[in-house]
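Can't paste images in this forum, so I'm doing it all in text. The chain is below; anyone willing to post the predicted structure tokens underneath?
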Amino acid sequence: MYHSEKYFRALELDKVLEQLANQTSCEDSRRMALNLRPANDFYEAKALMKKTSDAYMLSARYTAPTIHKLKNCNDALARAEKGSNLSLGELLQVASVLRNIRSAKDWRSRCDASRTSLDDLFELLCPNKSLENLIHNAIVSEEEVSDAASKELGEIRRKINAAQLRIRDRLDKMIHSPAQSKFLQETIITMRDGRFVVPVKSEYRSEVKGLVHDTSASGATIFVEPMAVVEANNEIKVLQSKEKREIDRIIQELSQEVGVYAHSIIESYQYLLEIDLYFAKAALAYKMKASVPNLVETGEIELKKARHPLIDPEKVVATDIMLGKDFDTLVITGPNTGGKTVTLKTIGLLTLMAMSGLMLPVNDNSTISFYKKVLVDIGDEQSIEQSLSTFSAHMTNIVSIMEEADSDSLILLDELGAGTDPVEGAALAISILERLAIYGAKIAATTHYAEIKMYALQTPRVQNASCEFDVETLKPTYRLLIGIPGKSNAFAISQRLGLPEDIIENARENISSENSRFEDVISQLDAARQELEKERETVSKLRAEQEQDKREWENYKVRVNKEMEQELLNAQEKANRIVSSVKAESEQLLDELDEIRKQKESAEFSKLVQGAKAGYRSSMNKLVDKANPVIQGMQEEYHLPRPLKKGDTVLIAQLQQEGTVLSEPDHSGKVLVQAGIMKTKVSIEELRLVEKKNSVTLNGAARKQSSRRNGAVSKSIQSRSERNANTEVDMRGMNVEEGLMLLDQYIDNCVLSGVKTITVIHGKGTGVLRKAVQTHLRNHKMVRTFRLGVYGEGESGVTIVELK
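Text version of the structure:
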């Protein structure tokens, strides 16, 4: 046996592989699982881990591919390839392999996941559905070939059935005939040697003419084939011979067809076994609640919440383990049954599992290293047959380990230096650790010796660790505490168990003052550690609460924004419904006016109706625009007339709500605005400056005047005369006739009110209305000049008119 196999068994890798084998789907993949061994190369180990990880991902998203009743038929395939005929059972096994190959290939094609490291194996699968169907259509079971296997076989079997029916008819008439039935033992038809016979009483043998085929054990019954059916039985025998020859021919053809594809099927079978093994690894990872570690080759180990995979998940204690980063040697101390050996086995076993492509029962973001050698001395190797003591057995192993150790080795030593004089044992243990450190190996060792604890404290790249023990309950917690040397706790345990106090005190006096001080330092360190852990738990709890409050606040902000948006949408919908209702009623009224106009041909009456209709449609267009203030505000092109400053009153375009600027714009172009009780940062592109200014208006009346130009916001209080003479007229949506009629009325009102400059809004559109307006203005006696609007006034969508 190789040393490595002994080390694998010492770390109980074989038991983990047994668990893996239980997840496989067939005997061959089970055997592969039991024979699994760590990779010899770092990149091979990474590739194995990647495939297991991808299998885990695919299983989680799509469940694992189904492999059902898969059996090894490689021997049969090899014989078929050489020209031998296969049995019906062997042919069915080949079809089963082909069905599993096709099923696995189809499963991967249905998974819409991106490309994985397993796809190379899936692509190497070569399904052969035609051969699979050929076998299934031809063979019903291991004993029967289907009638549909060939046309000739079907025809032969139909003839056999017809002949058997004729024989049964004749024999049925015979056994029910009063003249013949008295000679029969029973009125039944049976078969002997593939021929139909009837049971005749032995004393009436001469009464029934025919061939005797058998006699009962008592001799009272003879089985006679009546002469009337001998020829028909002979015909069946001939047909059965033809049937056998046809079946042999079918089996030969199927065997030859299998032989043609034998090599491809054997290769696909091997790839399918590999796929099954990787999905078995994924299933084991799911069972262990495992994760994918970061696999490195630097010797660094950092396992977070590692669990030994062979301990009951309900009882196992997760622990953090580190080695190879800040220190290369880890000295673990503590009382017996405290978990020191379990820690060593956890380090070694998880290392072997990672190198075998198995996911580890650790938390995410754990790191483990690839080692070319994992050398172990764990357990009591005392052998009576070899006349070796415990100490000698350990030393024999350590000598073998030191011969193999190098910088690519992980070395695990349990109870180093035990089994001999404590002073000599401790000195020997320190010397062994120093020599292995020179080799560059990564070492984890357990011990009880205080001298080794001191060595770890004083030596660079060597670190103490201990397995925590609860003195109150006299039970180990199995937690590994790195940086804290362990205590034997012998006095405390003895005191709890009832040993007299004077005996314990006497024992304390027998300990050297140096050892006593060392134990006191350890106690103080342990007390400080426990206090720090409590503080850390408190801080972690506060941080978690803070994160929860932050998440709740973010959720609240999102909810409020959604509610605001919904309220705006609801308001817009309500406005649209109101406008639609009014518009429908008004359209009905206009229709009635049109009907009146048809009845009354008066030109004056028609002119009034047209004016009323034009005024109505202009008002309706404005009402529709107002029904959707949010979108209108978003679509307006607006430039601030001056930079914003603190105290400015602005309109938030999206909300259509006024607010006050509280800060200058920041580097991202946002300012802090207070709108009601809400403070929010808003981009300056979404703000409109509200300017309030006084001016002297027409007819000497004082008013506040403002106009909305380029999205600017204004407020005005108009006198009674001004209400009939606004400075803008909106003709959008009208035809030429309606628009010019409205324009004439509007100019007349403006002249009467003393307005000198007006704005005619005709829109850009096709330009027909604009041309008609400008042609009309050229010939109007009250127009001095006119021009198209410039940037900021509406450009070619408006015409600015100066009146006389």
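Residues 322 and 788 are 81 Å apart (CA to CA). The radius of gyration is 50 Å.
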